[in-house]
């Protein structure tokens, strides 16, 4: 049984991550101070340093929380009784929806490559997203929707296309319009390797 102290510690940590996520989304990493985060979370700086080594560690916890939530959302979208092709289309549409979320845009697409460094960010993105892309392609192959394609290379190229699409949406003056265009382009790419029915 968990102690009240460990429950309190966990809720303090979660409050810090939630407040940091909100402030990083609104103001960006550089313009968000630890003082603002602890004030919003109603904890002391000592409590913050008990859980996190500093602002970057707190950012990475916020990033991980956003990505974990995103992966849950995407897995739910592709986990249905529909055909593998319909699930793939639904997965791409759900990914576009995720890319329209201001928190995902700010933390994952804009801030993370700078704060975490491009290599570390790529590793994290691959850890969270690449497996889903590969799994969807494997299901399409197993269902006979795709021909004889090199799965690893195709998955990496599709993953890169999804990442590029996310950046296009995040940087667009009209993200919804960009999202629709990215969706159309991605579906054409997938249909390009689809086996003739």
What does this structure look like?
This protein is mainly α and 197 residues long. It has helices spanning 4-27, 34-41, 45-51, 55-78, 84-99, 102-115, 118-142, 151-171, 175-192.
In terms of topology, how is this protein built?
Blueprint: H1 4-27, H2 34-41, H3 45-51, H4 55-78, H5 84-99, H6 102-115, H7 118-142, H8 151-171, H9 175-192
Helix pairs in contact: 1-2, 1-4, 1-6, 4-5, 4-6, 4-7, 5-7, 5-9, 6-8, 7-8, 8-9
**Which radius of gyration do the C-alpha atoms yield?**
19 Å
The total count of strands amounts to 0
Query: Can you count the helices?
Result: 9
What's the pLDDT, averaged over the residues? Answer: 90
Helix coverage percent of residues?
Answer: over 70%
What fraction strand?
Answer: under 5%
**Which word captures the global form?**
elongated
Distance between the termini: 57 Å
Structural class: mainly alpha
Order of helices and strands: HHHHHHHHH
- Poorly predicted sequence stretches spanning 5 or more consecutive residues: none
Major sheet? none
